[in-house]
Design goal:
Blueprint (H helix, E strand, L loop, with lengths): L1 H19 L3 H26 L5 H79 L5 H32 L11 H9 L1
């Protein structure tokens, strides 16, 4: 009866080690009581059947202790593997986040620089067209100049929108209300 009890407890311990070694609290709750019971039963069973001077008592006790130590080592190694895997995952996520933030910053900086660099020649073209408007032009030349000015102002508005997007992403956008001539805007789009 004691041998069957020992085998049942041994089987239960193997199952506990294989299933619960990754969860420390459950492992200790299930494994530690079994290990003490197994050690006590093993020593008492062997000492009742065999005299104390028999080598089998020593061998059974050594086997039990060695088995328990092996189970503990397996459980701790499994737990360490899980911890190392979790740490490696966190490190990888931090590196990926830093890389994404760096790429985002580079993109925002590129947009800001490019919109400023494109706005300077665009303002020069619009300014030159405004000066040309003050001269005497034929009706056809004046219409072509108005088309040129409208297109330049649309491009300038687009560049300003790009700059606004980079400011939004950087958290630096200042919203302001400005009057808009909707009729003039629609007339310019129709040309």
């Amino acid at each position: 009866a004691q041998v069957v009890g020992l085998l049942l407890i041994l089987g239960a311990m193997v199952q506990v080690v294989s299933n619960l070694s990754s969860d420390r609290a459950l492992f200790y709750a299930a494994f530690v009581p079994y290990s003490f019971v197994l050690t006590v039963l093993c020593v008492s069973a062997v000492s009742e059947v065999y005299p104390a001077e028999n080598w089998r008592i020593v061998a059974a006790t050594v086997f039990t202790v060695a088995f328990l130590i092996g189970c503990y080592i397996k459980a701790f190694n499994t737990r360490n593997e899980h911890l190392l895997s979790a740490i490696a995952g966190r490190i990888r996520l931090r590196q990926e986040r830093a890389s994404a933030e760096q790429a985002h910053h580079a993109k925002a900086q590129f947009l800001a620089v490019m919109s400023h660099e494109l706005r300077t020649p665009m303002n020069a073209m619009i300014g030159s067209a405004e000066l040309l408007r003050r001269t005497s032009l034929s009706l056809e030349q004046r219409q072509q100049l108005e088309t040129l000015l409208d297109g330049g102002e649309m491009l300038l508005a687009l560049l300003n929108d790009i700059l606004d997007m980079s400011n939004i992403e950087a958290g630096k956008l200042q919203v302001e209300a400005i009057p808009t001539d909707l009729g003039g805007l629609l007339e310019g789009l129709a040309r």
